[in-house]
Protein 1
Amino acid sequence: MPKMNLTHLEASILFAVCCSIVLGLVTKRTDRERIRYALYCFGCFIATLFGLGWLMYFGHR
Protein backbone atom coordinates (compact mmCIF):
# COMPACT_ATOMS: atom_id res chain seq x y z
CA MET A 1 0.00 0.00 0.00
CA PRO A 2 1.50 3.37 -1.00
CA LYS A 3 2.11 6.01 1.63
CA MET A 4 0.40 9.38 1.55
CA ASN A 5 2.72 12.23 2.42
CA LEU A 6 0.50 15.25 2.97
CA THR A 7 1.57 18.65 4.11
CA HIS A 8 -0.26 20.22 7.01
CA LEU A 9 -2.23 22.43 4.59
CA GLU A 10 -3.25 19.48 2.40
CA ALA A 11 -4.34 17.43 5.41
CA SER A 12 -6.35 20.37 6.75
CA ILE A 13 -8.11 20.89 3.42
CA LEU A 14 -8.87 17.16 3.18
CA PHE A 15 -10.31 17.28 6.70
CA ALA A 16 -12.41 20.32 5.77
CA VAL A 17 -13.79 18.58 2.67
CA CYS A 18 -14.70 15.40 4.57
CA CYS A 19 -16.31 17.24 7.48
CA SER A 20 -18.24 19.57 5.18
CA ILE A 21 -19.69 16.67 3.21
CA VAL A 22 -20.76 14.82 6.35
CA LEU A 23 -22.26 17.94 7.93
CA GLY A 24 -24.16 18.69 4.75
CA LEU A 25 -25.53 15.17 4.53
CA VAL A 26 -26.68 14.77 8.12
CA THR A 27 -28.12 18.21 8.85
CA LYS A 28 -30.27 19.16 5.84
CA ARG A 29 -33.23 17.56 4.10
CA THR A 30 -33.07 18.51 0.41
CA ASP A 31 -30.15 18.08 -1.96
CA ARG A 32 -30.01 21.82 -2.66
CA GLU A 33 -29.80 22.63 1.06
CA ARG A 34 -27.16 19.95 1.57
CA ILE A 35 -24.91 21.29 -1.18
CA ARG A 36 -25.26 24.90 -0.05
CA TYR A 37 -24.60 24.03 3.58
CA ALA A 38 -21.60 21.84 2.70
CA LEU A 39 -20.10 24.68 0.66
CA TYR A 40 -20.81 27.13 3.48
CA CYS A 41 -19.11 24.82 6.02
CA PHE A 42 -16.14 24.32 3.69
CA GLY A 43 -15.76 28.08 3.33
CA CYS A 44 -15.89 28.52 7.09
CA PHE A 45 -13.27 25.80 7.60
CA ILE A 46 -10.93 27.37 5.05
CA ALA A 47 -11.44 30.91 6.40
CA THR A 48 -10.70 29.66 9.91
CA LEU A 49 -7.67 27.73 8.69
CA PHE A 50 -6.12 30.79 7.05
CA GLY A 51 -7.19 33.11 9.85
CA LEU A 52 -5.54 30.96 12.50
CA GLY A 53 -2.50 30.51 10.28
CA TRP A 54 -2.00 34.27 10.05
CA LEU A 55 -2.65 34.66 13.77
CA MET A 56 0.08 32.13 14.53
CA TYR A 57 2.41 33.81 12.02
CA PHE A 58 2.04 37.20 13.67
CA GLY A 59 2.11 35.67 17.15
CA HIS A 60 5.53 34.10 16.55
CA ARG A 61 7.00 37.09 14.78
Note: Helices lie at 8-27, 31-59.
Protein 2
Amino acid sequence: MCRDVFICATILSVLEGTILNNRYKLADRVGLGGMASVYRAEDMVLGRTVAIKMLHEGLLGDATFVRQFQQEAHSAANLAHPNIVTVHDIGQHEHRSYIVMEYVAGQTLKAIIRDHFAEKRFIPINRVLDLLIQICRGIGYAHRSGVVHCDIKPQNIIVTADERVKVTDFGIARAVSQASISLDRDGSAWGTPQYFSPEQASGDTPTPASDVYAIGIVMYETLTNRLPFTGENATAVAIKHLQESPKDIRKINKHVPEQLAKIVHKILDKEPSGRYRTAGQLGRILTAYRDQYRQQEVAPPILPIAKTVQVRSKPPAVELPSVVPQHAPQREPVFADDPTQFPSDIEMEINPPSSDDPLLETDYVAVTLGMAALLALLGLIPLWIVVARAWGVF
Protein backbone atom coordinates (compact mmCIF):
# COMPACT_ATOMS: atom_id res chain seq x y z
CA MET A 1 0.00 0.00 0.00
CA CYS A 2 1.18 3.48 -0.78
CA ARG A 3 1.56 4.97 2.70
CA ASP A 4 2.98 8.39 1.88
CA VAL A 5 0.11 10.46 0.52
CA PHE A 6 2.47 13.03 -1.03
CA ILE A 7 4.36 10.33 -2.95
CA CYS A 8 1.08 8.73 -4.03
CA ALA A 9 -0.18 12.09 -5.29
CA THR A 10 2.99 12.67 -7.27
CA ILE A 11 2.91 9.24 -8.91
CA LEU A 12 -0.80 9.31 -9.73
CA SER A 13 -0.79 12.84 -11.11
CA VAL A 14 0.87 11.52 -14.29
CA LEU A 15 -2.28 9.50 -15.01
CA GLU A 16 -4.29 12.63 -15.74
CA GLY A 17 -5.06 12.66 -19.47
CA THR A 18 -4.55 8.90 -19.77
CA ILE A 19 -7.12 6.99 -21.83
CA LEU A 20 -8.16 3.65 -20.29
CA ASN A 21 -9.06 0.85 -22.71
CA ASN A 22 -9.63 3.36 -25.51
CA ARG A 23 -12.77 4.58 -23.74
CA TYR A 24 -12.26 6.52 -20.51
CA LYS A 25 -10.19 9.69 -20.59
CA LEU A 26 -8.97 10.70 -17.13
CA ALA A 27 -9.35 14.38 -16.28
CA ASP A 28 -8.53 15.82 -12.86
CA ARG A 29 -8.17 13.85 -9.65
CA VAL A 30 -11.03 14.57 -7.24
CA GLY A 31 -10.13 12.26 -4.38
CA LEU A 32 -7.12 10.51 -2.85
CA GLY A 33 -7.10 7.78 -0.23
CA GLY A 34 -4.88 5.06 1.16
CA MET A 35 -6.14 2.42 -1.28
CA ALA A 36 -7.21 4.32 -4.39
CA SER A 37 -7.48 7.64 -6.17
CA VAL A 38 -10.67 8.93 -7.76
CA TYR A 39 -10.63 10.74 -11.09
CA ARG A 40 -13.27 12.61 -12.95
CA ALA A 41 -13.24 11.16 -16.45
CA GLU A 42 -15.06 11.24 -19.78
CA ASP A 43 -16.74 8.16 -21.17
CA MET A 44 -15.94 8.77 -24.85
CA VAL A 45 -18.36 6.05 -26.01
CA LEU A 46 -21.48 7.24 -24.19
CA GLY A 47 -20.44 10.88 -23.94
CA ARG A 48 -20.95 11.26 -20.20
CA THR A 49 -18.92 12.25 -17.17
CA VAL A 50 -17.98 9.39 -14.86
CA ALA A 51 -15.84 8.83 -11.78
CA ILE A 52 -13.03 6.27 -11.93
CA LYS A 53 -11.45 4.79 -8.83
CA MET A 54 -7.91 3.52 -9.53
CA LEU A 55 -6.30 1.17 -7.04
CA HIS A 56 -2.75 2.02 -5.98
CA GLU A 57 0.06 -0.10 -7.36
CA GLY A 58 1.01 -1.23 -3.87
CA LEU A 59 -2.19 -3.30 -3.69
CA LEU A 60 -1.42 -5.34 -6.78
CA GLY A 61 0.92 -7.64 -4.84
CA ASP A 62 -1.98 -8.99 -2.76
CA ALA A 63 -3.51 -11.51 -5.15
CA THR A 64 -6.26 -12.40 -2.65
CA PHE A 65 -7.29 -8.78 -2.38
CA VAL A 66 -7.32 -8.19 -6.15
CA ARG A 67 -9.42 -11.29 -6.77
CA GLN A 68 -11.85 -10.46 -4.00
CA PHE A 69 -11.99 -6.84 -5.13
CA GLN A 70 -13.05 -7.86 -8.63
CA GLN A 71 -15.71 -10.24 -7.30
CA GLU A 72 -17.18 -7.69 -4.93
CA ALA A 73 -17.06 -4.95 -7.57
CA HIS A 74 -19.25 -7.16 -9.75
CA SER A 75 -21.66 -7.59 -6.83
CA ALA A 76 -21.73 -3.83 -6.24
CA ALA A 77 -22.53 -3.31 -9.93
CA ASN A 78 -25.85 -5.09 -9.32
CA LEU A 79 -26.92 -2.59 -6.65
CA ALA A 80 -29.33 -0.09 -8.17
CA HIS A 81 -30.67 2.34 -5.58
CA PRO A 82 -31.03 6.15 -5.45
CA ASN A 83 -28.80 6.31 -2.34
CA ILE A 84 -26.00 4.13 -3.72
CA VAL A 85 -23.38 5.27 -6.23
CA THR A 86 -23.97 3.21 -9.37
CA VAL A 87 -21.09 1.07 -10.70
CA HIS A 88 -20.97 1.19 -14.51
CA ASP A 89 -17.90 -0.84 -15.40
CA ILE A 90 -14.86 -2.72 -14.06
CA GLY A 91 -11.51 -3.06 -15.79
CA GLN A 92 -7.71 -3.01 -15.68
CA HIS A 93 -5.11 -0.64 -17.03
CA GLU A 94 -1.51 -1.85 -17.06
CA HIS A 95 -2.44 -4.45 -14.42
CA ARG A 96 -4.05 -1.81 -12.24
CA SER A 97 -7.69 -2.47 -11.40
CA TYR A 98 -10.25 0.31 -11.63
CA ILE A 99 -13.98 0.86 -11.18
CA VAL A 100 -16.10 3.17 -13.33
CA MET A 101 -18.89 4.76 -11.31
CA GLU A 102 -21.52 7.45 -11.72
CA TYR A 103 -20.09 10.89 -11.12
CA VAL A 104 -21.72 12.62 -8.16
CA ALA A 105 -21.02 16.30 -7.59
CA GLY A 106 -21.10 17.15 -3.92
CA GLN A 107 -19.32 17.06 -0.58
CA THR A 108 -18.46 14.09 1.54
CA LEU A 109 -20.22 13.94 4.88
CA LYS A 110 -16.78 14.17 6.48
CA ALA A 111 -16.22 17.56 4.83
CA ILE A 112 -19.63 18.77 6.03
CA ILE A 113 -18.82 17.73 9.60
CA ARG A 114 -15.45 19.47 9.43
CA ASP A 115 -17.04 22.68 8.12
CA HIS A 116 -19.42 22.80 11.08
CA PHE A 117 -16.63 21.97 13.49
CA ALA A 118 -14.52 24.80 12.05
CA GLU A 119 -17.42 27.18 12.70
CA LYS A 120 -17.92 25.71 16.20
CA ARG A 121 -21.52 24.74 15.61
CA PHE A 122 -23.48 21.51 15.41
CA ILE A 123 -25.41 20.20 12.43
CA PRO A 124 -29.17 20.70 13.05
CA ILE A 125 -31.00 17.62 14.33
CA ASN A 126 -33.48 17.63 11.44
CA ARG A 127 -30.68 17.59 8.88
CA VAL A 128 -28.83 14.82 10.70
CA LEU A 129 -31.97 12.68 10.67
CA ASP A 130 -32.60 13.33 6.97
CA LEU A 131 -29.04 12.33 6.05
CA LEU A 132 -28.95 9.24 8.27
CA ILE A 133 -32.31 7.98 6.99
CA GLN A 134 -31.02 8.14 3.42
CA ILE A 135 -27.85 6.30 4.43
CA CYS A 136 -29.98 3.59 6.04
CA ARG A 137 -32.10 3.30 2.91
CA GLY A 138 -29.07 2.69 0.71
CA ILE A 139 -27.33 0.31 3.10
CA GLY A 140 -30.64 -1.40 3.89
CA TYR A 141 -31.15 -2.11 0.19
CA ALA A 142 -27.67 -3.63 0.03
CA HIS A 143 -28.46 -5.82 3.04
CA ARG A 144 -31.62 -7.11 1.37
CA SER A 145 -29.47 -7.90 -1.66
CA GLY A 146 -27.05 -9.90 0.47
CA VAL A 147 -24.24 -7.31 0.44
CA VAL A 148 -22.50 -5.99 3.57
CA HIS A 149 -20.55 -2.76 3.11
CA CYS A 150 -17.99 -3.34 5.90
CA ASP A 151 -16.46 0.16 5.83
CA ILE A 152 -19.19 2.76 6.30
CA LYS A 153 -17.71 6.14 7.20
CA PRO A 154 -18.38 9.80 6.37
CA GLN A 155 -15.63 9.73 3.73
CA ASN A 156 -17.69 7.16 1.77
CA ILE A 157 -20.90 9.20 1.92
CA ILE A 158 -21.46 11.95 -0.66
CA VAL A 159 -24.08 14.67 -0.14
CA THR A 160 -25.23 16.64 -3.18
CA ALA A 161 -26.27 20.28 -3.24
CA ASP A 162 -29.93 19.27 -2.93
CA GLU A 163 -29.19 17.08 0.12
CA ARG A 164 -29.32 13.71 -1.66
CA VAL A 165 -27.09 11.06 -0.11
CA LYS A 166 -24.99 8.62 -2.13
CA VAL A 167 -23.04 5.80 -0.44
CA THR A 168 -19.97 4.56 -2.28
CA ASP A 169 -17.01 2.13 -2.01
CA PHE A 170 -18.94 -1.13 -1.67
CA GLY A 171 -16.45 -3.10 -3.77
CA ILE A 172 -13.28 -1.96 -2.03
CA ALA A 173 -14.70 -2.20 1.48
CA ARG A 174 -15.98 -5.76 1.10
CA ALA A 175 -12.79 -6.91 -0.64
CA VAL A 176 -10.65 -5.46 2.13
CA SER A 177 -12.77 -7.13 4.78
CA GLN A 178 -12.60 -10.54 3.14
CA ALA A 179 -8.90 -10.34 2.26
CA SER A 180 -7.45 -9.11 5.55
CA ILE A 181 -9.13 -7.48 8.50
CA SER A 182 -6.18 -7.99 10.83
CA LEU A 183 -3.87 -5.22 11.93
CA ASP A 184 -0.55 -4.70 10.19
CA ARG A 185 2.79 -4.70 11.99
CA ASP A 186 2.96 -0.96 12.15
CA GLY A 187 -0.49 -0.77 13.73
CA SER A 188 -2.41 0.27 10.63
CA ALA A 189 -5.37 -1.70 9.38
CA TRP A 190 -7.34 -2.46 6.28
CA GLY A 191 -10.37 -0.22 6.39
CA THR A 192 -10.95 2.42 9.03
CA PRO A 193 -10.56 1.28 12.67
CA GLN A 194 -12.49 4.28 14.03
CA TYR A 195 -15.65 2.83 12.43
CA PHE A 196 -15.01 -0.86 13.08
CA SER A 197 -17.64 -2.86 14.90
CA PRO A 198 -16.37 -4.83 17.92
CA GLU A 199 -16.73 -8.09 16.00
CA GLN A 200 -14.69 -6.69 13.11
CA ALA A 201 -12.02 -5.50 15.54
CA SER A 202 -11.79 -9.03 16.94
CA GLY A 203 -11.51 -10.56 13.45
CA ASP A 204 -15.00 -12.01 13.08
CA THR A 205 -16.93 -11.99 9.81
CA PRO A 206 -18.92 -8.75 9.37
CA THR A 207 -22.72 -8.95 9.25
CA PRO A 208 -25.48 -6.40 8.56
CA ALA A 209 -25.38 -5.62 12.30
CA SER A 210 -21.72 -4.59 11.80
CA ASP A 211 -22.84 -2.01 9.26
CA VAL A 212 -25.48 -0.81 11.74
CA TYR A 213 -22.73 -0.24 14.32
CA ALA A 214 -20.71 1.77 11.77
CA ILE A 215 -23.79 3.86 10.98
CA GLY A 216 -24.05 4.50 14.72
CA ILE A 217 -20.47 5.80 14.76
CA VAL A 218 -21.28 8.05 11.79
CA MET A 219 -24.41 9.27 13.57
CA TYR A 220 -22.48 9.97 16.78
CA GLU A 221 -19.85 11.93 14.85
CA THR A 222 -22.44 13.88 12.85
CA LEU A 223 -24.28 14.92 16.03
CA THR A 224 -21.17 15.83 18.05
CA ASN A 225 -18.38 16.58 15.56
CA ARG A 226 -16.37 13.95 17.47
CA LEU A 227 -15.50 10.29 17.13
CA PRO A 228 -16.57 8.15 20.09
CA PHE A 229 -13.25 6.26 20.13
CA THR A 230 -9.77 7.53 19.27
CA GLY A 231 -6.28 6.29 20.04
CA GLU A 232 -2.61 6.46 19.15
CA ASN A 233 -2.93 3.57 16.70
CA ALA A 234 -5.41 1.12 15.23
CA THR A 235 -4.83 -1.41 17.99
CA ALA A 236 -5.69 1.08 20.72
CA VAL A 237 -8.87 2.10 18.89
CA ALA A 238 -9.89 -1.53 18.35
CA ILE A 239 -9.52 -2.27 22.06
CA LYS A 240 -11.77 0.67 22.92
CA HIS A 241 -14.45 -0.65 20.55
CA LEU A 242 -14.29 -3.94 22.41
CA GLN A 243 -14.11 -2.69 25.99
CA GLU A 244 -15.21 0.92 26.42
CA SER A 245 -18.50 2.78 26.18
CA PRO A 246 -18.69 6.07 24.31
CA LYS A 247 -19.19 9.31 26.22
CA ASP A 248 -22.81 10.31 26.74
CA ILE A 249 -23.76 12.10 23.56
CA ARG A 250 -25.90 14.65 25.43
CA LYS A 251 -22.90 15.78 27.47
CA ILE A 252 -21.25 16.86 24.19
CA ASN A 253 -24.31 18.23 22.39
CA LYS A 254 -27.10 19.24 24.77
CA HIS A 255 -29.46 19.75 21.82
CA VAL A 256 -29.67 16.01 21.16
CA PRO A 257 -33.06 14.80 22.50
CA GLU A 258 -32.90 12.08 25.13
CA GLN A 259 -34.83 9.57 23.03
CA LEU A 260 -32.47 10.05 20.08
CA ALA A 261 -29.51 9.56 22.41
CA LYS A 262 -31.06 6.24 23.51
CA ILE A 263 -31.33 5.13 19.89
CA VAL A 264 -27.65 5.90 19.29
CA HIS A 265 -26.74 4.05 22.47
CA LYS A 266 -28.62 0.96 21.27
CA ILE A 267 -26.94 1.11 17.85
CA LEU A 268 -23.53 1.10 19.54
CA ASP A 269 -24.21 -1.98 21.65
CA LYS A 270 -21.12 -4.22 21.84
CA GLU A 271 -23.19 -7.30 21.02
CA PRO A 272 -24.68 -7.55 17.49
CA SER A 273 -27.87 -9.01 18.97
CA GLY A 274 -28.33 -5.86 21.05
CA ARG A 275 -28.48 -3.58 17.99
CA TYR A 276 -31.04 -3.19 15.25
CA ARG A 277 -30.61 -6.13 12.91
CA THR A 278 -30.31 -4.30 9.61
CA ALA A 279 -29.93 -0.77 8.30
CA GLY A 280 -33.48 -1.00 6.94
CA GLN A 281 -34.88 -1.58 10.42
CA LEU A 282 -32.83 1.31 11.80
CA GLY A 283 -34.06 3.52 8.96
CA ARG A 284 -37.68 2.83 9.90
CA ILE A 285 -36.97 3.69 13.54
CA LEU A 286 -35.30 6.98 12.56
CA THR A 287 -38.11 7.85 10.13
CA ALA A 288 -40.75 7.34 12.84
CA TYR A 289 -38.70 9.40 15.27
CA ARG A 290 -38.14 12.22 12.74
CA ASP A 291 -41.84 12.46 11.88
CA GLN A 292 -42.88 12.75 15.52
CA TYR A 293 -39.97 15.07 16.30
CA ARG A 294 -41.21 17.46 13.62
CA GLN A 295 -44.79 17.23 14.85
CA GLN A 296 -43.60 18.35 18.28
CA GLU A 297 -41.84 21.32 16.71
CA VAL A 298 -44.93 22.57 14.85
CA ALA A 299 -47.58 21.65 17.47
CA PRO A 300 -49.93 24.62 18.18
CA PRO A 301 -49.99 26.09 21.69
CA ILE A 302 -52.60 24.74 24.11
CA LEU A 303 -54.88 27.45 25.48
CA PRO A 304 -56.36 27.12 28.99
CA ILE A 305 -60.15 26.90 29.17
CA ALA A 306 -61.69 29.92 30.92
CA LYS A 307 -64.31 29.19 33.57
CA THR A 308 -67.88 30.38 32.87
CA VAL A 309 -68.88 33.44 34.88
CA GLN A 310 -72.62 33.87 35.55
CA VAL A 311 -73.69 37.51 35.80
CA ARG A 312 -77.08 38.62 37.26
CA SER A 313 -78.97 41.72 36.25
CA LYS A 314 -77.29 44.94 37.24
CA PRO A 315 -74.24 43.19 38.56
CA PRO A 316 -71.31 44.87 40.12
CA ALA A 317 -68.27 45.18 37.97
CA VAL A 318 -66.82 41.73 37.47
CA GLU A 319 -63.31 41.30 36.15
CA LEU A 320 -63.18 38.20 33.96
CA PRO A 321 -60.00 36.15 34.08
CA SER A 322 -57.79 36.81 31.12
CA VAL A 323 -56.78 33.86 28.94
CA VAL A 324 -53.06 33.90 28.31
CA PRO A 325 -51.79 31.53 25.59
CA GLN A 326 -49.39 28.99 26.99
CA HIS A 327 -47.16 26.71 25.01
CA ALA A 328 -47.45 23.02 25.59
CA PRO A 329 -44.52 21.54 27.49
CA GLN A 330 -41.92 20.05 25.17
CA ARG A 331 -42.14 16.29 25.06
CA GLU A 332 -39.97 13.92 23.18
CA PRO A 333 -41.45 11.70 20.49
CA VAL A 334 -42.54 8.31 21.73
CA PHE A 335 -42.97 5.34 19.45
CA ALA A 336 -43.39 1.69 20.24
CA ASP A 337 -40.86 0.54 17.61
CA ASP A 338 -38.03 1.43 19.97
CA PRO A 339 -37.68 -1.27 22.62
CA THR A 340 -35.59 1.12 24.72
CA GLN A 341 -38.60 3.37 25.29
CA PHE A 342 -40.89 0.98 27.16
CA PRO A 343 -40.36 -1.99 29.52
CA SER A 344 -41.22 -5.39 28.07
CA ASP A 345 -44.28 -5.75 30.29
CA ILE A 346 -46.58 -2.86 31.13
CA GLU A 347 -48.44 -3.52 34.36
CA MET A 348 -51.69 -1.68 35.04
CA GLU A 349 -52.99 -1.56 38.61
CA ILE A 350 -56.77 -1.66 38.91
CA ASN A 351 -58.06 -0.51 42.32
CA PRO A 352 -61.55 -1.68 43.45
CA PRO A 353 -64.03 1.09 44.39
CA SER A 354 -63.66 2.34 47.93
CA SER A 355 -66.46 1.81 50.44
CA ASP A 356 -66.26 5.54 51.07
CA ASP A 357 -67.43 6.23 47.54
CA PRO A 358 -70.57 8.46 47.84
CA LEU A 359 -72.09 6.62 44.88
CA LEU A 360 -72.16 3.44 46.98
CA GLU A 361 -73.77 4.93 50.15
CA THR A 362 -77.22 3.43 51.25
CA ASP A 363 -80.34 5.50 50.35
CA TYR A 364 -82.52 4.91 53.46
CA VAL A 365 -85.53 6.86 52.10
CA ALA A 366 -85.74 4.70 49.05
CA VAL A 367 -85.46 1.54 51.15
CA THR A 368 -88.34 2.66 53.47
CA LEU A 369 -90.68 3.47 50.59
CA GLY A 370 -89.88 0.17 48.95
CA MET A 371 -90.74 -1.79 52.09
CA ALA A 372 -94.05 0.07 52.51
CA ALA A 373 -95.05 -0.70 48.95
CA LEU A 374 -94.28 -4.37 49.45
CA LEU A 375 -96.41 -4.57 52.65
CA ALA A 376 -99.33 -2.85 50.93
CA LEU A 377 -99.19 -5.36 48.12
CA LEU A 378 -99.19 -8.27 50.54
CA GLY A 379 -102.22 -6.78 52.39
CA LEU A 380 -104.31 -6.85 49.22
CA ILE A 381 -103.99 -10.61 48.78
CA PRO A 382 -106.85 -11.63 51.25
CA LEU A 383 -109.18 -9.04 49.66
CA TRP A 384 -108.45 -10.44 46.24
CA ILE A 385 -109.33 -13.99 47.44
CA VAL A 386 -112.73 -12.84 48.87
CA VAL A 387 -113.65 -11.08 45.63
CA ALA A 388 -112.64 -14.08 43.59
CA ARG A 389 -114.91 -16.44 45.61
CA ALA A 390 -117.83 -14.04 45.30
CA TRP A 391 -117.56 -14.16 41.54
CA GLY A 392 -117.18 -17.91 41.53
CA VAL A 393 -113.63 -17.98 40.45
CA PHE A 394 -112.79 -20.62 43.08
Note: The chain has two domains: 1-103, 106-298.
